[in-house]
User: What shape does this take?
Amino acid sequence: MNRISLSIAFTTGLLASSLLAVPASAQALQSRYWVEASAFWPDIDTNVSVSTPGGRVGTDISLESDLNLRDRKTLPAFLAGARLWDRVTIIGEYYALNRSGSASVARDITFDDVTYPAGARVNSSFESDVYRLALGYSFIRRENLELGAAIGLHATNFEATLSGDGQVGNIPVQNQRRTRDLIAPMPTVGLYGGYQVTPRLTLAGRVDYMSLSSGKYDGSILNTEARASYRVWKNVGVGAMYRYVDYDFDVEKKRWTGRLDYKFSGPALFLQATF
Assistant: This one.
């Protein structure tokens, strides 16, 4: 099985076997408010292509293989949530993943209207800022057990930059820098779950998904996670989780015409406070 199948199977199994649902935090089920800070260590796989509208077709570039961007990086993430009513919760989350690299490319690479020939030194960067908001309703709500569904918005700002000596058409050019950015707001629907095994130990999981096609976008997003937290003191807990996120977009916009395939998955450790 590949990583996406393993992630879905693990999360779905956690939801189904426990019949549980807690908002994306792993706070005790009685908490009214919660905040969380985590250190996320994902394995990253990024492919981009940027074409000139009506002109040159961009190369499908692997940022890790072709341009030597790091495929592992530790990043901070922040989450906050509140129980608005007994069965209604809201959460917000933010994290950013920014990388840069430099490589002598092994093949010709076309990005926007510039072709960087094999052997050229190309500097690159890729930045993403992820914002997530979700409103959940718990169909099952007990002292140590919840099961619910959520609607939300997963908005991500992407920016890709390449620079180096290359060619525009047949004309050699030096120090050519091209930057393209994209804001991708995607509504999501999902399931979330949580089970308080003991007064100190809580298990949780969630799956959020959406596939959307419009005039300028054709893409999908999948966000899954499974976690366990342990309450050290009354209002303080620690925990670990595994998260898988998969973006797949075909885009036709002025700021980005081409394709973006962006996956990252890995473990995280977190510290949480509940009120």
Summary: The first strand starts at residue 33 and ends at 40.
